[in-house]
Amino acid sequence: MLRSFEQLCQETVEGWQIAADDGHAAQANSGAYAQPWHWHDCVMLILPSCGAVELQHEDRRQGTWLTHDRFAVVPANRAHMTRAGAGAHHVALYATESMLSRLDSELGSLREFHRRTRAAVLVQRTPRVRALQALATGAEHGGYGHAGITRSLAVALLIQCIAEVMAGPVLSAVSRAEHGMALVAELKNYIARHADEDIPLDALGERFGASRRHITRLFRRATGLSVGEFQQRVRLQTARELLGGTDLPIGEVAFRVGFDSGTALSHAMRRVDGCSPSEVRKASPRRTVSAGRPG
């Protein structure tokens, strides 16, 4: 099934379209979805930012996984299919041949880009690409208030991706084991950012597109810990840093790291460290900072 550039520019799914202009379009997608086998009459780039996107294409029908560290370029008229779990977030960029010809004349030869993308390729998602992707999607959510700025950011993201394809290494396909390790890394990062919250395994499974059982087995095999044990370690480490570096009351420290009370923090800390929060504070070099909560 052909999904033409004109069809992409007329995309009506709410929240998908970031920008669409003459020869260029950008779309953001969040949550579970699946696109059956199809092709475009333009080049497509897929840039995950959270979770994993599975990509199959006629050059590699067994499929590969795209995670936050890499993006894919699929040439025009190359059949492919994609699917993602509930927690996946990615941006898709589309560029017609006329758009690429215009960039070639304005910015310099794209011969190396065309040579490297005769078949679908995977390329490293660099900090520059990540920053521009964040700006482009921020603009889509109303961060800059002007459609012209949004289009400019989307074009800048496309140009940076093209530059990375020409100058950076072409990456190998991600194996199932590598995908598992990437998933664990994303899980650890997410749990660490939300360590003060109760995170049900079912919610993690929905966010990252994997079953509760798969996450449990994968996480323990990679870390030697359950998800709950890892979260407890993060909470206690954060508590130690707050105790040693601030004058916050122990009850406030407990609240900030996810414990119901100072007593609950004390019990957990004595069980792991063999000492109370007060003893941890006395033994730590002090770095006094404001004890007020952020507004």
TrEMBL record:
Pfam families reported for this sequence: HTH_18
Keyword DNA-binding set for record: yes
Membrane-traversing stretches: none
Region feature (Disordered): 276-295
Top-level taxonomic group: Bacteria
Keywords, alphabetical: DNA-binding, Transcription, Transcription regulation
Domain HTH araC/xylS-type span(s) in chain numbering: 185-283
GO MF terms, alphabetically ordered: DNA-binding transcription factor activity; sequence-specific DNA binding
Protein name (record): AraC family transcriptional regulator
Lineage, opening ranks: Bacteria, Pseudomonadati, Pseudomonadota, Betaproteobacteria, Burkholderiales
